[in-house]
């Protein structure tokens, strides 16, 4: 956090005087059932708070002086929850809007990647980081950030590493580190010299074992690239504190991981919980770390151990357990009061000893203006034609009645099923968007700025279905691309060109008329909106698509489409 001059002599004297009744403490939280994460027990007691930190357990109330007393009503007191790995851009909200949706869920600390935002900013990456982190200490959650380990120039990473609240290097790109990229060597060397942390992105599903030795050997601090029990076993065997992510892929992915932990009896001390990517709507409807703790207990993990996976284990992994992660003297007074340990219900959320959320509503938030980060679009699709979006078969059957094409599946994240080569009917020389009796939409992946011949991949799509019209969105990093879903090339071309007018956006069109627009004005990856404005815009996208035949479940369509870019990059469908 921001470094300020501290008179330590004054601090230690003040704490001594408080504990001897000669000076007022700030707050006494009493009548609590306190979770001891160290002994994994619960005891009835109280917490005394001064200068943002806990200074006493069960203080003698006949001795102490205190400015304010809060009756905990016998509720459980647990440490403020921690997200071990979150991409700032994934929920499309800027930091204060994120707070409004996240903090009422009991989350008081996040460890955040910002690589896509800074990559999108390009040469302006350093200034983008400065604006992103401006006044970060005023946020109602504790923020620790990582300089980009991939997608940015090395010089940008080096400068960001010197900023607060940056504590290390973000995840590497396994397509480059596995080949011995010189920029990766430089980035790793800089953070090693600083003694900072390195986030892993191990590529367990893509790399041979000998290459997998590289990251732990150079000192990478953790790994979140696990998708099944065998991945988990390998990750912890190589010594990684392993982050179990629940914000990406299908709902079965997180259940598969949790089942493996329970069935194979992996010690839970190895694990932290994280989102990786998550939408604002999911935060509002389902929750954050509170929800995943509850799911852990449903899957058979002891409630106290599940809470530790979202608090103490993460703090310890980042060598911060002397500051956060437990309710003990000297730690920051980040406290959640809940009426259950197995079904977390964050009734009161304290950060630094201040009540900031109650009954899932924010009581206090920062007021930070991010408009200086908004950018205007630079068009790149002026020469795009509808014919370029027609599906050209990968292969035709001998009788010309069947065509082999790509099928992309929004629910296939992290699995080979993200894309398949399938055979579909051909009628009058055109591919029919139908497979095994299921009607499908078409998908086009379009490079925004052509360098010679424009890179375009066309196929079928499972996850968003429209009977007519189209929906398109964009992603600027590491190379700007669009995805557009529809039935007819002409409408799809029109929709993509409408998105091209913005630095970033999601747009629904029908009969070449714009039906709904969600602009992503902050470097094309974030919306400069409040939570209410953002959710209304995302809902409007879904409502417009529903009129066109889509029946959406789970994440909003805009988040589903944006998640595609991760998989498209991973499976090399983007240049």
UniProtKB/TrEMBL annotation:
Residues 270-355 form the Amidohydrolase-related domain. It catalyses: adenine + H2O + H(+) = hypoxanthine + NH4(+). Residues 423-555 form the Adenine deaminase C-terminal domain. This is adenine deaminase. It comes from the Bacteria. It is an enzyme of class 3 (hydrolase). It holds the Pfam family Amidohydro_1. InterPro entries: Adenine_deam_C, Amidohydro-rel, Metal-dep_hydrolase_composite, Metal_Hydrolase, Metallo-dep_Hydrolase. PANTHER family: ALPHA-D-RIBOSE 1-METHYLPHOSPHONATE 5-TRIPHOSPHATE DIPHOSPHATASE. GO terms for molecular function: adenine deaminase activity. Its EC number is 3.5.4.2. It comes from Brevibacillus parabrevis. SUPFAM superfamilies: Composite domain of metallo-dependent hydrolases, Metallo-dependent hydrolases. Belongs to the metallo-dependent hydrolases superfamily. Adenine deaminase family. The gene is ade_1.
């Amino acid at each position: 956090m921001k470094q300020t001059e501290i008179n330590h002599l004054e601090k230690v004297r003040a704490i001594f005087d408080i504990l001897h009744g000669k000076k007022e403490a700030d707050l006494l939280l009493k009548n609590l059932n306190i979770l001891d994460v160290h002994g994994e027990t619960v005891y009835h007691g109280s917490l005394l708070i001064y200068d943002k930190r806990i200074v006493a357990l069960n203080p003698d109330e006949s001795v102490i002086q205190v400015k304010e007393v809060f009756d905990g009503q016998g509720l459980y007191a647990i440490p403020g929850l921690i997200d071990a790995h979150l991409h700032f851009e994934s929920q499309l909200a800027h930091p204060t809007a994120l707070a409004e949706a996240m903090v009422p869920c009991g989350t008081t600390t996040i460890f955040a990647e910002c690589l896509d935002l800074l990559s999108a900013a390009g040469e302006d990456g350093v200034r983008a980081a400065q604006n992103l982190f401006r006044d970060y200490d005023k946020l109602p959650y504790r923020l620790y950030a990582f300089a980009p380990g991939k997608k940015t120039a090395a010089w940008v990473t080096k400068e960001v590493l010197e900023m607060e609240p940056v504590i290390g290097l973000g995840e590497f790109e396994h397509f480059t580190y596995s080949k011995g990229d010189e920029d990766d060597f430089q980035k790793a060397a800089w953070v090693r010299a600083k003694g900072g942390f390195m986030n892993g992105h191990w590529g367990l599903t893509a790399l041979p074992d000998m290459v997998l030795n590289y990251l732990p050997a150079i000192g990478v601090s953790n790994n979140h690239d696990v998708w099944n029990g065998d991945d988990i076993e390998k990750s912890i065997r190589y010594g990684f504190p392993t982050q179990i992510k629940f914000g990406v892929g299908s709902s079965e992915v997180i259940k598969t991981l949790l089942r493996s932990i329970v069935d194979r009896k992996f010690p839970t001390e190895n694990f932290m919980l994280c989102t990786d990517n998550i939408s604002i709507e999911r935060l509002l409807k389902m929750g954050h770390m509170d929800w995943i703790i509850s799911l852990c207990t449903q899957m058979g993990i002891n409630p106290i151990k599940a809470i530790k996976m979202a608090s103490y284990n993460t703090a310890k992994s980042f060598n911060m357990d002397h500051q956060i992660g437990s309710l003990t003297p000297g730690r920051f007074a980040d406290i959640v009061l809940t009426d259950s340990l197995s079904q977390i219900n964050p009734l009161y959320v304290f950060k630094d000893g201040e009540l900031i959320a109650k009954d899932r509503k924010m009581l206090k938030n920062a007021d930070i203006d991010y408009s200086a980060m908004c950018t205007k679009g630079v068009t790149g699709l002026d020469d795009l034609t509808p014919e370029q979006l027609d599906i050209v078969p990968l292969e035709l059957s001998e009788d010309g009645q069947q065509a082999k094409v790509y099928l992309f599946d929004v629910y296939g994240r992290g699995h080979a099923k993200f894309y398949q080569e399938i055979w579909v009917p051909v009628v009058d020389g055109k591919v029919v968007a139908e497979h095994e009796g299921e009607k499908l939409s078409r998908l086009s992946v379009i490079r925004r700025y052509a360098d010679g011949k424009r890179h375009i991949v066309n196929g079928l799509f499972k996850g968003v279905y429209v009977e007519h019209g189209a929906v398109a969105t964009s992603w600027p990093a590491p190379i700007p691309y669009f995805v557009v879903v529809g039935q007819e090339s002409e409408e799809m071309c029109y929709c993509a060109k409408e998105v091209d007018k913005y630095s970033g956006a999601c747009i629904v069109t029908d009969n070449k008329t714009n039906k709904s627009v969600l602009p992503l004005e902050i470097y094309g990856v974030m919306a400069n909106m409040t939570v209410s404005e953002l959710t209304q815009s995302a809902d409007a996208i879904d409502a417009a698509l529903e009129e066109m035949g889509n029946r959406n479940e789970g994440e909003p369509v805009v988040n589903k489409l944006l998640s595609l870019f991760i998989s498209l990059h991973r499976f090399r469908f983007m240049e």
